[in-house]
Design a protein that fits this description.
Blueprint lengths: L18 H16 L7 E8 L3 E2 L14 E6 L4 H9 L1 E2 L5 E2 L2 H13 L3 E8 L5 H21 L23 H6 L1
Parallel strand pairs: 1-6, 3-4
Antiparallel strand pairs: 2-5, 3-6
Helix pairs in contact: 1-3
Length: 179
C-alpha cells in the first residue's frame, strides 16, 4: 500500500477575537474532516515581533546567516514533528505568548489532540523596512526548513511582499461577527 501525503495551505487574515476563534475552529474542523482514516499533522508557521514572546532569561543568540526558528510540539509525535523538533530550537518552558492568534490555535489543537508542530520566527518589535527584510529572511528559513523536512520544493525568489491596508471593518471584529 502506498503512502500518500496531502498538503493543505490555509492563509488567514489577521483576525481578532471572537472572529479569530471561530475562523481557527472552522479551519481545524475542515482539516479533521478531510481524511477521516488518518489524523492530520499540522505544521503551523508564525513570524512574530519579539514583544509577543516572553520567557525568563531571554537571550537570543543572533546568527546573522540564519534566522532563529523555534519549535513547539503539541500532541502525538509523528515522523514530521520529530524531524522538525531536531531542526529547530526548543522554546523554554517559561514561554509566555502575547499573540492572540497563536494562543488560540495552541488551545484548540490541544483540545482536538492534533499532532502539531508550530514554527516561530522572531523579528524585531516594529515593522520597519529593516524588519520587513528580517521577516522575509525568516519566512525563507521556515520555507527551506519545511522543504528539507518533507518532499516539498521552496523557492526564495518567489516570495513577494505585498502589505495590506487595514480596513475599517477589520478594525471592528465584534461588528463583523454580530453585524
Amino acid at each position: 500500500m502506498s503512502h500518500m501525503t496531502w498538503v493543505s495551505l490555509f492563509l488567514m487574515q489577521n483576525y481578532e477575537p471572537p472572529v479569530l476563534a471561530c475562523a481557527v475552529a472552522e479551519i481545524l474542523s475542515q482539516i479533521s474532516g478531510e481524511e477521516p482514516s488518518s489524523m492530520p499533522t499540522l505544521i503551523v508557521p508564525f513570524v512574530l515581533a519579539s514583544s509577543k514572546l516572553k520567557w525568563e532569561s531571554k537571550t537570543l543568540t543572533k546568527n546573522e546567516s540564519k534566522a532563529s526558528i523555534y519549535g513547539i510540539q503539541i500532541g502525538p509525535d509523528t515522523d514530521i514533528t520529530h524531524v522538525m523538533a531536531t531542526r529547530t530550537q526548543k522554546v523554554p518552558s517559561s514561554l509566555q505568548i502575547h499573540h492572540e492568534p497563536l494562543a488560540c490555535l495552541l488551545q484548540l489543537v490541544r483540545v482536538l489532540k492534533f499532532p502539531t508542530f508550530v514554527l516561530i520566527g522572531q523579528r524585531g518589535r516594529h515593522l520597519s523596512d529593516k524588519a520587513i527584510g528580517e521577516e522575509l529572511k525568516i519566512i525563507s528559513e521556515i520555507g527551506e526548513l519545511l522543504a528539507s523536512s518533507s518532499c516539498l520544493c521552496f523557492s526564495r525568489d518567489r516570495i513577494v511582499w505585498q502589505p495590506t491596508n487595514t480596513s475599517k471593518e477589520s478594525e471592528e471584529p465584534w461588528r463583523a461577527l454580530y453585524g
